[in-house]
Specification:
The chain is α/β, with parallel strands linked by helices. 39% of the residues lie in helices and 17% in strands. Strand 5, helix 5 and strand 6 form a beta-alpha-beta unit. The chain binds NADP nicotinamide-adenine-dinucleotide phosphate. The site of NADP nicotinamide-adenine-dinucleotide phosphate has 27 residues, from helix 1.
């Protein structure tokens, strides 16, 4: 008999943003630990690729643009009862204050904050979440660690953290848990906007000497989805190679 407190056997888990980066790595790690996954994203080819990298074949995918209510409804209507939800879909937009407009602010807030908030509401209201479900929001150290040009993204992740805490409190009596992970920089599609020279300079700020890998965030998601953290809710888990130590 093998003892594994982090097993996800018997759990149905939804991962948004699973066509790429942290969401993809999360789907793969969860499948290795026995979960049955529903993965979603906009790009069907890359979602298929994620499926092909996952263990076992019992998983499904839903192609949906969650910015629109049609996409959100399509996803929600395709879901079974869920034991875990991972909100990984997100975008990065870097602009100094004087270039911030109502339009680009609304677009960023829509994907990074409003979508996870509305999806959580739908899942709870439609009783899709099991009584001991675990919700994991992928936030960012940017929520409280300022960097130039990052105002809108910082604000979107700050809102997400506060939302997570409110959900954790409100749903605790139902046995549902909510936590967030705050990664430092992880090389994915999201970071292609940042030049190599900027990255090289930035890495010097990381005491552990490098950026993170998607699977290092995915393993923390597994921890939060597993029964090992049944008494953990409302927590912000920082994984940043020591960036915010000083
Ligand atoms: N990478 C980092 O350094 C870092 C650091 C801290 C926090 N994070 C957070 O981690 C999360 C994942 O980021 P990542 O680095 O893995 O980025 P990524 O590789 O660019 O993946 C982003 C994912 O979000 C999906 N997505 C974006 N807009 C969507 C929409 N309107 N509807 C549905 N899906 C949408 C994308 O789907 P399609 O490609 O199919 O459109 C993709 O699967 C984000 O919330 C990000 O803010 C990342």
């Amino acid at each position: 008999m093998s003892y594994n407190p982090f097993s996800l056997k018997g759990k149905n888990v939804l991962v948004t943003g699973a066509s790429s980066g942290i969401g993809r790595a999360t789907a793969i790690e969860c499948s290795r630990l026995g979960a049955k996954l529903i993965i979603t994203g906009r790009n069907s080819e890359r979602l298929e690729e994620t499926l092909s990298l996952m263990e076992d074949e019992a998983h499904s995918m839903v192609v949906a643009d969650l910015s629109y209510s049609e996409g959100l409804n399509l996803l929600v209507n395709a879901l079974p009862q869920l034991d875990g939800v991972v909100h990984s879909a997100g975008v990065l937009k870097r602009l100094p204050l004087k270039f911030v407009t109502e339009e680009n602010l609304a677009e960023l807030m829509q994907i990074n904050f409003i979508i996870p908030a509305l999806l959580t509401r739908h899942l709870y209201k439609k009783k899709i979440l099991s009584t001991d479900a675990s919700i994991v929001f992928i936030s960012s150290v940017a929520s409280s660690f300022a960097s130039l040009g990052n105002i809108m993204y910082m604000a979107s992740k700050g809102a997400l953290n506060s939302f997570m805490k409110g959900v954790a409190l409100e749903l605790a009596s139902s046995g549902i848990r909510a936590n967030a992970i705050q990664p430092g920089m992880v090389k994915t599609h999201l970071t292609v906007l940042i030049s190599d020279s900027e990255i090289e300079k930035d890495i010097d700020c990381y005491p552990l000497g490098r950026y993170g890998k998607p699977e290092e965030i995915a393993c923390a998601v597994v921890y939060l989805l597993s029964d090992a953290t049944k008494w953990m809710t409302g927590t912000l888990l920082t994984i940043d190679g020591g960036l915010t130590l000083r």
